[in-house]
Amino acid sequence: MKTPHIHRLSTQGIRFTRCCNAALTCSPLRQSLYTGLYAVGNGAHPNHSQVFEGVKSLPHYLKPLGYRVAIIGKLHEAPASAFPFEMLGGNHGDGGKTSAGADLPLERAWEFISRDRQQAWCLVVASNQPHTPWNRGDTSRYDPSTLTVPRHLVDTPVLPEALSREATT
Fold first, then answer.
1. pTM to 2 decimals?
2. Would you say 96 and 136 are in contact if contact means Cβ atoms under 8 Å apart?
3. What is residue 53's predicted lDDT score, i.e. its pLDDT?
4. Mean local confidence (pLDDT), 117-141
């Protein structure tokens, strides 16, 4: 995929080039990433569930070390006490612009990053784009007939068209 902005950002920080999912569905995976625990261990195993009482996440560990810790975008974690991020906005779904505003209001992310240049920070940017609808970007940039279907996906007649939409995000 052509991601010049993400590539430029990755040159200024840490980049993960290999990763394994701790869960197959959205909410359990997000809660596993933020807690460092498998979904069966933190309580959020079924999708749309919540972690056990007393489970700690990134903000619990980073704030005492002096970090500002925020999240922007998809919010799908519970209960709130287990995920005390500074909330920068966003929506659970992905409709681009909604009545609640942008589902990924990146101008708020820049404000967070710029607020105090002396303090360490951790920002989780939680895009909904791994889900359909893949509704961002210029679909003309990727010709569906030239795309290679990844081995882990079933190659169907409609998949390259969907991937061309995905590749524009």
1. 0.72
2. yes
3. 95
4. 77
